[in-house]
């Protein structure tokens, strides 16, 4: 006797589930969000593949020539195709400098947001789950933290490293000064959001069951509670990435950022600002456009993600 064929429906593929999701529908319905996603993807990809895309290496002294300095963009009368967006006074290609500088800005922004999220999520889970004195101490520290802007924190950390290392600070040290400054400035938002969500989750049945079977508090927090509070964290991280890039650019413009030998977008704008009134407008305008495009596109994606994950707006 032959068995009946299995007529149960096959599970949908992951790609089909994504296409049928509310988030994908919300994404494809907004043309502004799609344009922002394309711009952000192009800028991030250009920064990642800068060594292969850039026509010149702006950080290799052997390839620089002062005779190529202050050349205008290619569409101007004295422009050259070797330098599509012109050069600065040292002969560095502005287009290549933007690609390499944007990569540094994005790396600093990602590292700063990752540090802030790690600190904030950990403290938020502890405060929301334990409550009591631990909650009071962490939240009071968060209140104090809100009184210190990122620029002031960066200046304090920068001054401390200068006192410890003097003028012998390496580029790695300066990089971590920026990352720690951004991380210590943005962790409060994560902590408060995660704390509120954890206070709701800790009274649910799955947490009570995990306690009954004897799981430790770190296991309950990071294996069971954390996956249920990540939605708001993703929104905060996306928006904070744009703020982190802006903060890094501001600090670099003030002279606290990386040296001119490894400039970010903020450093490029600082350098170009010195020659703006001499007629070399392209040295500062194009890095500024790149910075504004990156921040605006990421902000638009963050706003869309916040609305897409809000069940009240579905």
Describe the structure.
- Keywords: Cell membrane, Membrane, Transmembrane, Transmembrane helix, Transport.
- The chain is mostly helical.
- The chain has a single domain (24-49, 86-313), classed as MetI-like (MetI-like fold).
- It has helices spanning 14-19, 22-29, 31-48, 50-53, 94-130, 132-145, 150-165, 171-201, 205-212, 217-225, 230-253, 265-273, 282-308.
Give the arrangement of secondary structure elements.
Blueprint lengths: L13 H6 L2 H8 L1 H18 L1 H4 L40 H37 L1 H14 L4 H16 L5 H31 L3 H8 L4 H9 L4 H24 L11 H9 L8 H27 L6
Could you list some keywords that capture this structure?
314 residues, mainly alpha
Enumerate the spans where pLDDT stays under 50 for 5 or more consecutive residues.
none
Write down the CATH topology: MetI-like fold
- Number of domain units: 1
Number of helical runs?
13
Count of strand segments: 0
Q: Secondary-structure element order, as H and E?
A: HHHHHHHHHHHHH
CATH architecture term: Orthogonal Bundle
User: How many strands, which pairing sense, and closed or not: the largest β-sheet?
Assistant: none
Work out the helicity level.
55-70%
Rg over CA atoms, rounded to whole Å, is 24 Å
Overall SS class: mainly alpha
- Strand % is under 5%
